[in-house]
Specification:
alpha/beta; four-stranded mixed beta sheet
Amino acid sequence: MRSHTLKYYKHSLRVYWNRLLGREFVEANKSPCIEISGVCNLNCVFCAYREKSEAKVVMSTEAFARHVDQLVQLGYGHFGLTPQTGDVFVDKHVADKLDVLEAHPGVTGYEFITNLIGASPETLKHMMGLKKLTRMYISLYGRDADSFQKITDRKSHQFDRLVANLDTLADLSPEFQGVLGSFIMTDSDFSWSPFDAPQGEEPPLLAAVRRLAQSAPRFDWSGNHIDFDSWGGRVTQQTLDNLGMGFNLVGPTVPMAGPCSMLFGGFIVLADGKVNACACRAVDSSLVIGDANVQPLAEILHPDNPAYRVILERHRKSDYPDACRDCKIFTSIHRRKRHADTVTVEQYLEAQRERCSGRKA
């Protein structure tokens, strides 16, 4: 595990000082997540999907439409569709689900991350004409076929399909109104950007990303990601070291003081209908607060839901579940958020109570 930096300790002082003074910064308008597919076409060594036993299913379009409608009735309009572990294009009916969002008058936008491998040319063409798709990011694993196979435990034909889909997307992207973006996870010494001048002939993957960056009206490159967390102890530093790519196992980038801000609006409706209080790293049942197949979401998301209260009280006492304890996305409510509207915990809970109570049958 990487040791803490000076920046971490500076953040620590601010967080503990804010906690001492009772200052809380809860984002008022998080976007909820709906997991279209809990099934993935890869088996990446740094992901808990390898050990996941539940929710390896694809959500039906009917269930998806029902969840969207209930959430819109509760006042939500923008949605994240990135699976906790899975990929949206494993769902052969993903276009139908996106059409549900496009047609719903209460939906303002949606976004997701995908490895792009499972997309068909027809689906990509359909997507580039969607009006409410605000962002689509493509996660890349390895810089070439060899490193791709090492990371994903999949054959080179999947890599070839990725490159082909990137080329197809480059041809279609000029008409897309949203943001296309990408990032890569590969050797720690890899330093490259599609916006820099090429240094000689580039391998197929990088050439395809460069072409996409040049053709898309709005493209974002967020670089090489080499830091990962343990998914509640399911991934070890030794596992990462075996790749020989310089990957690091890291914990929270800010001190764990009080509840994580993700407990306040950062929930996810999983592909099997279970609802997690947080969309990050809990692939066990430790953060499940209900089942949307048998309960209305207004009841599950109500702040007085006993299952939610247990999790919140554990966080308040710093008694964190394993999935939270090592999560690098953990963000204390006592850390000030720049460029975000924030409220106190009680203000959030009261607003959520009014939102859900007013919608209960």
